[in-house]
Design goal:
The complex is a heterodimer of chains A (436) and B (313).
Chain A lengths: L1 H7 L3 H10 L3 H4 E9 L3 E8 L6 E7 L3 E2 L2 E2 L6 H12 L8 E7 L2 E7 L3 E2 H12 L5 H20 L2 E2 L8 E3 L5 E3 L6 E2 L7 H4 L11 H4 L8 H16 L21 H11 L16 H5 L8 H9 L2 H10 L10 H5 L40 H4 L2 H23 L16 H6 L13
Antiparallel strand pairs in A: 1-2, 2-3, 3-7, 4-5, 6-7, 8-10, 9-12, 10-11
Chain B lengths: L8 H5 L4 H7 L1 H4 L6 H20 L4 H17 L7 H15 L6 H16 L8 H14 L9 H9 L39 H12 L4 H4 L2 H15 L1 H18 L8 H8 L3 H11 L1 H6 L5 H15 L1
Helix pairs in contact in B: 4-5, 4-6, 5-6, 6-7, 6-8, 9-10, 9-12, 10-12, 12-13, 12-17, 13-15
The chains are: A alpha+beta (436), B mainly alpha (313).
Chain lengths: 436, 313
């Protein structure tokens, strides 16, 4: 009998030993509440039960289910990436991974906690303060973002999903780049980058070479995204808010006409002179059939970026030719960062208390396993509570995700004005770059 | 990170000493008559990983990563308390993901079952994907989530690799993107490289492959293993050795002018004063200077070279 068991599952003893030795998440952390969820799983705010009592964000990867039974199906590529990369890097402007706990078929990544993120700062200004982000804050946030990116790029890591929601800020105003789930090493890849992930970067932040179907790309796609983020901080709206064309049934990546038009409306149609290799890109012929636009970035920047040098930096981040786009290192050397107001280590240094964005909202969780037992209540009550909590969570999320849209329909517009360019029409919600 | 070994998890957490390795095998030692047998097991399991890796069409670097995972797992565990076969399959499965060339879990399970069952009579390998996924979970935990591995291949190609490197499969040599060149560096430019003869580079590559049959990857930093492999190649590769000796003796005969040429060939060679052969000769003479210029502990390299020899012997 015993022997049989050993033959059928020789690792039983090993696992029992390991399981007994392992500290559980809830032994080490008190879960304070639920922060957000995504395709990957859920994020919680938690306090360490150590003497230091530090606050953390715990990212719990969704366990895979077969029917109702949670089962092992293999760790996702994106979890492996995020874990593997985070274990190797440390930088002030990158969210630090404290530890990873593997328990009960779930993976928990324990990160340092950041009170704010770029999206929340943008919302706070557009909804509550109803004013632009001050130049000092805009510059500090952009500088620190580039500084973190320089570190990643020097380590041969492309982030591939930079966007306001993924860029966090601590309560002391330090920018922390987060979510390396789509990031990867580019040093000596065994396969070309496109082979792994057909689509990278959320559509609004996606570089033109990607939109034109480039199979080979590099760090400069992150720089384009930084341009988009900086523009969004300056104007409080996504600068290129296009509609994503969906994948067809064969999972072919379609021509992203609307997104390209949104870009051309501001930056003008790219020419072979400014981007010689453009004619080699797969979608070049499709692009040539689009209406022709001229560059109006200068005009766009005037009231929004409020600085000649700032506008110049934005222009260079938005160079069409990836080879001519600034690198993170070059961008940090830009004159804009050398003129007043100088970027500061605490991005909120110049702000009064009420100008600082509010603390991250947390809600009760609908996943009982992560919450203290008392909070869940009895079975029947628990059910009701769960759905209620889910609703709060979702309300919170949708508040996070939706931008205020004026209902202009400047869709696929050939002669759209700036208002409709940046105001968008109907407004697609922020889409994940990831594919199922 | 990918560039800096000294700040990597590999260097900081996973270079161990011999007493740690000895400790790790203490339980297993009770079951063998001769401790040498455990060394044979090291070879056996490395070969098995390699076989499974080839069936899964994994690249050499992925197989090497899987092997390092396997070795690390058994720094903390004993063979007698675990099932090395499922561990091997999990190592290949995780390594493929960690090296960004994933394979489907189904394939790993079916190839492993076939290989282990048919060739080694291991019938216990589970047919259920979730068993392998479960092992992956425990494996990643044992590895403390340190999944980025540095390999000697990279040092080898940095020091000796040619553009489009003939001897070694091109893709294995690494498709470093051209725009990775940041700041001041001479590597990757071809400057300062040791030019190995046709076949010699391949020999060095194969020597590195062989080091994974031992625990060297746990004991020494990969760049030292690479340099030891280069050193051994300079000695073992017949043509390379001959030309080093020739250039050494011809430089002798140049300095000692009265000395008559001992054999025909070196004189003929040196008399053929085309710029090409001169350049080549000059280069060959530089080998010792090249090794000395690496600024690494040569006694450590010699130790590693000795260990490789005892492994091959």
């Amino acid at each position: 009998m015993d022997n049989n068991l050993l033959v059928s599952d020789p690792m039983r003893v090993y696992r029992a030993k390991r399981d007994a030795a392992r500290k559980r998440v809830t032994d080490k952390y008190a879960i304070l509440g639920f922060i957000s969820s995504g395709t990957y799983g859920r994020v919680y705010k938690a306090q360490s039960k150590d003497v230091d009592g530090r606050i953390h964000a715990i990212k719990k990867f969704k366990p895979d289910k077969e029917g109702d039974v949670i089962t092992y199906t293999g760790i996702s590529q994106s979890a492996i990436r995020e874990i593997a990369l985070n274990r190797e890097i440390t930088h002030e402007n990158i969210v630090a991974l404290k530890e990873v706990i593997l328990e009960d078929k779930s993976i928990y990544m324990v990160f340092e906690y950041a009170e704010h993120d770029f999206l929340q700062v943008i919302h706070h200004h557009s909804q509550t303060l109803r004013s632009q982000i001050s130049l000092a804050v805009l510059k500090s946030l952009t500088y620190q973002l580039l500084n973190g990116l320089l570190y990643l790029h020097d380590a041969h890591i492309i982030h591939r999903d930079l966007k306001p929601a993924n860029i966090l800020i601590t309560s002391s105003g330090v920018v922390k780049i987060g979510d390396l789930g789509l990031a990867r090493l580019t040093h000596q890849p065994l396969q070309p980058l496109f082979a792994g992930d057909k689509v990278v970067v959320t559509i609004w932040y996606r570089a033109p070479e990607l939109l034109l179907g480039a199979k080979h790309y590099n760090k400069s796609i992150d720089i384009w995204a930084v341009g988009c983020v900086m523009a969004e901080l300056a104007s409080l709206r996504p600068i290129f808010k296009g509609e994503e064309a969906k994948l067809d049934s064969k999972k072919n990546v379609p021509f992203q006409k609307d997104q390209l038009l949104k870009i051309f409306e501001v930056l003008g149609t790219p020419s072979e002179r400014e981007w010689p290799k453009i004619k080699d890109l797969p979608e070049y012929q499709c692009m040539r059939r689009l209406d022709h636009y001229s560059n109006r970035l200068q005009e766009w920047s005037q009231s929004r970026v409020r600085s000649h040098e700032g506008a110049n930096l934005l222009k260079e981040l938005f160079a069409y030719d990836p080879d001519r786009r600034l690198t993170a290192g070059e961008a940090l050397q830009h004159k804009w960062f050398q003129e007043d107001p100088l970027p500061s280590r605490n991005a909120f240094e110049s702000l009064s208390t009420q100008q600082v964005p509010p603390h991250r909202r947390i809600t009760q969780d609908d996943a009982p396993s992560m919450m203290p037992v008392a909070a869940v209540g009895s079975q029947v009550q628990g059910q009701g509570q769960v759905s209620h909590m889910q609703a709060t969570g979702q309300a919170h999320l949708s508040q996070q995700l939706s931008h205020s849209h004026s209902n202009h329909s400047g869709k696929a517009g050939s002669a759209a004005s700036f208002a409709s360019v940046s105001g968008g029409g109907g407004g697609p919600s922020r889409k994940k770059a990831r594919l199922g | 990170m990918a560039t800096n070994f000294w700040s990597s998890s590999h260097y900081k957490r996973w270079i161990v000493d011999r007493s740690t390795l000895h400790q790790a095998r203490s339980d297993d030692l009770q079951y063998v008559d001769n401790p040498e047998y455990l060394g044979f097991l090291n070879i056996f399991f490395a070969n098995l990983i390699s076989k499974l890796g080839k069936k899964l069409q994994l690249r050499q670097r992925v197989i090497a990563t899987a092997t390092v995972f396997f070795r690390r797992f058994y720094v903390k565990n004993s063979y007698c308390e675990t099932d090395p076969f499922i561990v091997i399959a999990a190592c290949c499965y995780v390594a493929a993901k960690a090296e960004e060339s994933p394979v489907h879990i189904k394939n790993v399970v079916s190839e492993a079952r076939m290989l282990f069952g048919e060739e080694y009579g291991i019938k216990s390998f589970p047919s259920d994907n979730s068993k392998l996924a479960e092992m992956e979970f425990y494996l990643v935990d044992e590895l403390e989530c340190d999944l980025t591995i540095f390999h000697p291949y990279r040092t080898l190609m940095t020091l000796c690799g040619k553009e489009g490197g003939g001897a070694v499969p091109e893709a294995e040599a690494g498709e470093a993107d051209a725009d990775d060149v940041d700041g001041l560096r001479y590597w990757g430019t071809g400057e300062g490289k040791l030019e190995l003869q046709e076949g010699a580079l391949q020999m060095a590559w194969f020597i590195i492959n062989d080091t994974y049959r031992s625990e060297l990857c746990l004991l020494y930093p990969p760049h030292l293993i690479a340099i030891a492999a280069i050193y051994l190649t300079l000695v073992f590769h017949a043509q390379t050795r001959t030309s080093i000796q020739q250039s050494a003796s011809s430089s002798h005969s140049h300095s000692g002018s009265s000395h008559p040429s001992h054999s025909g060939s070196p004189t003929r060679r040196s008399s053929r004063s085309t710029s090409h052969s001169q350049k080549k000769q000059h280069h060959q003479q530089d080998v010792i200077g090249f090794m000395a210029g690496l600024n690494v502990s040569m006694s450590l390299v010699a130790t590693i070279a000795q260990e490789i020899i005892s492994l091959l012997g």
